[in-house]
Design brief:
With 318 residues, this protein is of the alpha/beta class. The protein contains twelve helices and ten strands. The chain folds into two domains: 102 residues, Four Helix Bundle (Hemerythrin (Met), subunit A); 190 residues, 3-Layer(aba) Sandwich (Rossmann fold). The structure holds ribulose-1,5-diphosphate (RUB).
Length: 318
């Protein structure tokens, strides 16, 4: 019940944003596993692997989700008894959640130092870590004003504008297509990430790459704030990050679409910003150039090629 309900809330975007999705999945695994009445370790492992699949199938793009699930499940797999596995589940889920909260705080601190005095910043979509960074920089007197985009079709920009306004930051709310028009007024762009590839490309809300392109053209620094669990180990095996394409109904009502039988509405939820448009990725392990993404995967995600290859091959046989 906890599991199905959480999966539904993630799928329908009641719970959204890569970090929140990951923490909620860890929580759901913990609560689901704690309520299970298994009599032996094999049964418990099987149930937990099933729960992991239900959660990871909810939204395909945010890598934080499989990374969080893997963090928890790998500790269950390493346990030798049912008691040990149950304790490991609770401990690892709580550990992930605490690390995630701490990472947001650390990134906000590092990121705020990368924002020059008296800056006008722009952000896109609603990223808790990008917003936390903007607010931290504001508290240090480094931000003068902010620009938040609307973020069609789901309007996550409202959540961002509200958070910036609540913090007291003078904020301009603009439609997505006005980003380039205002770029000349911007000192730094800050976004979050749903996934970072081994090559340093960043997958984030649709429209991010257009803003990065405009920033690049105007020589405006483009910062990405991303916890280490947003980095995608599978990209080292050549895997691509799947881009979620959501319902056309989010873009155009069925009634209007019904009058245009030859029109196909497309609704990709994310896009890919190449590393050469990104000045810095701020993680809790430090602020790195995108070319160092591989190091984060190796050092912070416990990358073990043989193990990942095994899992990858198993996944793809199913
Ligand atoms: C949210 C989005 C956010 C990243 C990072 O997309 O693209 O920028 O997930 O967010 P959606 P955070 O609204 O479709 O989930 O920093 O909060 O993890």
């Amino acid at each position: 019940m906890v599991l199905e309900e959480t999966a539904r809330r993630i799928r329908t975007m009641e719970i959204r944003g890569a970090g929140r999705i990951a923490r909620t999945a860890a929580e759901a695994l913990r609560d689901h596993g704690t309520a299970l009445q298994c009599t032996n370790l094999d049964e418990f492992r099987q149930e937990m692997h099933h729960a992991a699949t239900v959660l990871t199938n909810t939204r395909p793009t945010a890598v934080s989700l499989p990374n969080a699930v893997r963090f928890v499940i790998s500790r269950i797999d390493a346990s030798d008894s049912l008691d040990e596995a149950q304790a490991a589940l609770v401990e690892s889920a709580n550990d992930f959640i605490a690390r995630s909260h701490r990472a947001v705080e650390v990134i906000a601190e590092f990121g705020s130092r990368a924002i020059p005095e008296d800056s006008v910043i722009m952000t896109h979509c609603n990223s808790e870590v990008a917003v936390a960074t903007a607010i931290k920089a504001w508290e240090k007197g480094r931000v003068r004003e902010a620009f938040a985009t609307e973020v069609r079709p789901r309007n996550q920009g409202y959540i961002t504008a509200q958070a910036l306004s609540d913090a007291g930051i003078p904020t301009n709310f603009i439609v997505d297509s006005a980003a380039r028009y205002f770029m000349r007024d911007i000192d730094v762009v800050i976004t979050g990430a749903d996934a970072v590839t081994a090559g340093g490309a960043v997958v984030n809300k649709i429209g991010t790459s257009q803003i990065a392109l405009a920033a690049h053209e105007a020589r405006v620094p483009f910062l990405v704030t991303a916890e280490t669990y947003k980095f995608a180990p599978a990209t080292l095996l050549g895997e691509r990050i799947p881009i979620e394409e959501r319902s056309p109904g989010e873009v155009m009502s069925d009634e209007i679409a019904g009058r245009m039988p030859n029109v196909r509405v497309r609704n990709p939820a994310f896009d890919v910003t190449p590393p050469n448009y990104i000045d810095m990725i701020v993680t809790e392990a430090g602020a790195i150039p995108p070319g160092m993404a591989y190091v984060i995967i190796r050092e912070y995600l416990g990358w073990n090629r043989d193990e990942w290859q095994k899992d990858f091959l198993i996944d793809h046989q199913e």
